[in-house]
Amino acid sequence: QVQLVESGGGLVQAGGSLRLSCAASGSTFSVNNMAWYRQVPGKQRELVASRSSLGYTNYQNSLKGRFTVSKDSAKNTVYLQMNSLKPEDTAVYYCNLGGRYSSGTYIAGVSWGQGTQVTVSS
Length: 122
What we know:
This protein is 0% helix and 56% strand. The protein is mostly beta strands.
């Protein structure tokens, strides 16, 4: 059974940085595609960034240059480095594992973490 555990969220001032972690058990990021999503109350969950099993990354256009996905294979953990944070980045961030790509777009798999809250104050 796949388990994903996100951590690293918190409260940060605008312009600050956070690094989210997604640790997996029961599966590995080396052979699976994965993605980070975020969701605010009353809105649909939106794709933040994806990383293929081969290491290719894609980002939501508005986040390019501020967010970076990386992986530590030894720890079976994927990170989302978020810089120059803005109040509109406030959301619950989720990790997803095992999705697929269709026409270059990541389609979520069934494995989700519990989410980690990121709050950016102005």
